[in-house]
TrEMBL record:
It is found in: Membrane. It holds the Pfam family FerA. One of its GO terms (cellular component) is membrane. Keywords: Membrane, Repeat, Transmembrane, Transmembrane helix. It comes from the Eukaryota. Residues 13-78 form the Ferlin A-domain domain. Signal peptide: none annotated. This is Ferlin A-domain domain-containing protein. It comes from Micrurus spixii. PANTHER family: FER-1-LIKE, MYOFERLIN. Its main location: membrane. GO terms for biological process: membrane fusion; plasma membrane organization.
Amino acid sequence: IVKLQANLTALKSGIQAKMAEDQLAQIRLKLIDELIVDLSKELPRLEGKQNVTVLDTQILKLRVKSLHQIQETAIRVRNEDMDVKATLPDIEDWLDKLIQLTEEPQNSMPDVFIWMIRG
Protein backbone atom coordinates (compact mmCIF):
# COMPACT_ATOMS: atom_id res chain seq x y z
CA ILE A 1 0.00 0.00 0.00
CA VAL A 2 2.87 2.36 0.83
CA LYS A 3 4.42 1.85 -2.61
CA LEU A 4 1.07 2.42 -4.31
CA GLN A 5 0.50 5.61 -2.30
CA ALA A 6 3.97 6.90 -3.20
CA ASN A 7 3.51 6.13 -6.89
CA LEU A 8 0.05 7.70 -6.89
CA THR A 9 1.45 10.83 -5.25
CA ALA A 10 4.20 10.97 -7.89
CA LEU A 11 1.61 10.60 -10.64
CA LYS A 12 -0.59 13.36 -9.21
CA SER A 13 2.44 15.62 -8.76
CA GLY A 14 3.40 14.99 -12.37
CA ILE A 15 -0.09 15.90 -13.54
CA GLN A 16 -0.07 19.10 -11.48
CA ALA A 17 3.40 19.98 -12.78
CA LYS A 18 2.07 19.47 -16.31
CA MET A 19 4.69 16.88 -17.22
CA ALA A 20 4.80 15.53 -20.74
CA GLU A 21 2.26 12.80 -21.48
CA ASP A 22 4.97 10.22 -22.19
CA GLN A 23 6.56 10.85 -18.77
CA LEU A 24 3.17 10.57 -17.07
CA ALA A 25 2.52 7.37 -18.99
CA GLN A 26 5.83 5.95 -17.71
CA ILE A 27 4.93 6.79 -14.12
CA ARG A 28 1.48 5.23 -14.61
CA LEU A 29 3.02 2.12 -16.17
CA LYS A 30 5.51 1.77 -13.30
CA LEU A 31 2.69 2.16 -10.77
CA ILE A 32 0.53 -0.48 -12.42
CA ASP A 33 3.42 -2.90 -13.01
CA GLU A 34 4.52 -2.71 -9.36
CA LEU A 35 0.94 -3.16 -8.21
CA ILE A 36 0.49 -6.25 -10.40
CA VAL A 37 3.72 -7.78 -9.04
CA ASP A 38 2.76 -7.01 -5.44
CA LEU A 39 -0.73 -8.46 -5.89
CA SER A 40 0.69 -11.68 -7.33
CA LYS A 41 2.39 -12.46 -4.00
CA GLU A 42 0.58 -15.07 -1.97
CA LEU A 43 -1.07 -14.16 1.34
CA PRO A 44 0.03 -16.05 4.47
CA ARG A 45 -1.73 -19.36 5.00
CA LEU A 46 -3.93 -20.10 7.99
CA GLU A 47 -2.88 -23.74 8.29
CA GLY A 48 -0.89 -24.43 11.41
CA LYS A 49 -2.04 -21.29 13.20
CA GLN A 50 -3.88 -21.53 16.50
CA ASN A 51 -7.45 -20.37 17.10
CA VAL A 52 -8.38 -20.05 13.42
CA THR A 53 -12.11 -19.41 13.12
CA VAL A 54 -14.54 -19.72 10.25
CA LEU A 55 -14.48 -15.93 10.12
CA ASP A 56 -10.70 -16.00 9.58
CA THR A 57 -11.13 -18.44 6.70
CA GLN A 58 -13.90 -16.40 5.10
CA ILE A 59 -11.93 -13.16 5.43
CA LEU A 60 -8.91 -14.78 3.78
CA LYS A 61 -11.08 -15.99 0.88
CA LEU A 62 -12.58 -12.51 0.51
CA ARG A 63 -9.14 -10.90 0.52
CA VAL A 64 -7.75 -13.32 -2.05
CA LYS A 65 -10.76 -12.78 -4.31
CA SER A 66 -10.58 -9.00 -3.96
CA LEU A 67 -6.84 -8.91 -4.64
CA HIS A 68 -7.36 -11.07 -7.72
CA GLN A 69 -10.09 -8.73 -8.99
CA ILE A 70 -7.89 -5.67 -8.48
CA GLN A 71 -5.04 -7.44 -10.26
CA GLU A 72 -7.25 -8.37 -13.23
CA THR A 73 -8.50 -4.79 -13.50
CA ALA A 74 -4.94 -3.45 -13.27
CA ILE A 75 -3.83 -5.77 -16.08
CA ARG A 76 -6.77 -4.66 -18.22
CA VAL A 77 -6.09 -0.96 -17.53
CA ARG A 78 -2.38 -1.49 -18.27
CA ASN A 79 -3.15 -2.99 -21.66
CA GLU A 80 -5.60 -0.26 -22.63
CA ASP A 81 -4.30 2.92 -24.20
CA MET A 82 -6.04 5.29 -21.81
CA ASP A 83 -5.35 8.86 -20.85
CA VAL A 84 -3.33 9.01 -17.63
CA LYS A 85 -5.86 11.31 -15.96
CA ALA A 86 -8.66 8.90 -16.86
CA THR A 87 -6.98 6.11 -14.90
CA LEU A 88 -6.62 8.14 -11.69
CA PRO A 89 -10.08 7.21 -10.34
CA ASP A 90 -9.33 3.51 -10.91
CA ILE A 91 -5.99 3.75 -9.11
CA GLU A 92 -7.51 5.67 -6.19
CA ASP A 93 -10.27 3.05 -5.98
CA TRP A 94 -7.67 0.26 -5.84
CA LEU A 95 -5.88 2.06 -3.02
CA ASP A 96 -9.13 2.48 -1.06
CA LYS A 97 -9.99 -1.21 -1.49
CA LEU A 98 -6.53 -2.30 -0.39
CA ILE A 99 -6.72 -0.12 2.71
CA GLN A 100 -10.11 -1.66 3.56
CA LEU A 101 -8.71 -5.17 3.08
CA THR A 102 -5.91 -4.55 5.57
CA GLU A 103 -8.28 -3.79 8.43
CA GLU A 104 -8.55 -6.62 10.93
CA PRO A 105 -12.14 -7.24 12.05
CA GLN A 106 -10.90 -9.57 14.82
CA ASN A 107 -9.81 -6.52 16.77
CA SER A 108 -13.41 -5.48 17.31
CA MET A 109 -15.26 -6.26 20.52
CA PRO A 110 -17.83 -8.79 19.22
CA ASP A 111 -15.08 -11.03 17.82
CA VAL A 112 -13.36 -11.01 21.20
CA PHE A 113 -16.57 -12.29 22.79
CA ILE A 114 -16.90 -15.01 20.15
CA TRP A 115 -13.32 -16.05 20.77
CA MET A 116 -13.88 -16.16 24.55
CA ILE A 117 -17.06 -18.22 24.19
CA ARG A 118 -15.36 -20.56 21.75
CA GLY A 119 -12.65 -21.20 24.35
